[in-house]
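#lab-general

N.A. 3:47 PM
ok so I finally got the sequence cleaned up, no stray characters, all 319 residues accounted for. can someone with queue access submit it? mine expired

B.Y. 3:52 PM
send it over

N.A. 3:53 PM
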Amino acid sequence: MTPAERRREILGQPSAMKDVYAPADHYVNGHVILRRPDGWHLFYHPMEPYPPSNRILHATSDDLLTWTPHGPTVEAGGPSDCDAHEIGDCAIMEHKGRWYLLYQARPAPSTSRRFALAVSDDLYHWTKAPGDGSSIFTPHPSWSGWQEEGVLECKGPFLFRHEGRYLMYYSSESKWGDSCIALATSEDLVHWEDEGPFITAHRIENPIAGPSGFECPRVVEHGGKYYLFVMYFWGLQYAVGDDPYHFGPWQVIGPWHAATIFSDGEDRWYITHAYRPFGKPSVKGRFREPHKGLYIGGLVWSEGVPVPVDLGDVLEKPE
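B.Y. 4:20 PM
back already:
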């Protein structure tokens, strides 16, 4: 099949969300998509049969439709390293000509998650930092009750640059068991100051819908407003603020999983979905449908409201 035929096939899919990348031997879960001069870069946490996934994979594309895999960028460390047992969702940001990849990790099944770091000069070759197998961030025990043993959540990091500082949003839980979106700040992406939770909610337990707590927070700026997207209960929700620290009430978008919202810098916006057929909610503890890869749809802004649309409508939008 030629690239043109493949493009027509994908854009001809009946759903507005196009199934663009479905690896044969694993599933796409939490992911990051970047645009660079050489094209689009996808970094993602693959879900695989047990044991837990312990790597981050990389793929590239010229058009968001056809993807070339490049294999692992970060893999599990040695027995005493912070990422010996698990490597999970990641976030990527450029700082002073270098790329910083922050990812969730666990050294053993009984331990709490923490964040580790890898750096790169070209997005293809990565080195763990500081290089001694240690993590760079854990939530402060004053509010989180974080301890080495206990399997406390610290996951789904997202990086955002604002007024010369870097903000890291992530999902965690308080020492009282509430789910929260927490914030940390940094000037160099290496040394972080824990700002604690800024949105907290009781977990919602339901045998069909999920997740019960916040997952995959993402922040984008558009039209002078800041939009916080997060996976919570019935799928993807968002809240709007005048700054990236304070947000209004939640609005529901729909059953997106591990979604990320991004643009090409030319006012074309996109929304993604991964891990399960689009529209299928989580089933607590198990999945009743075959897992899938990466879906991408278009996104338009209607009087400040993010509206998902067909991917082809955005890709073929005149400049």
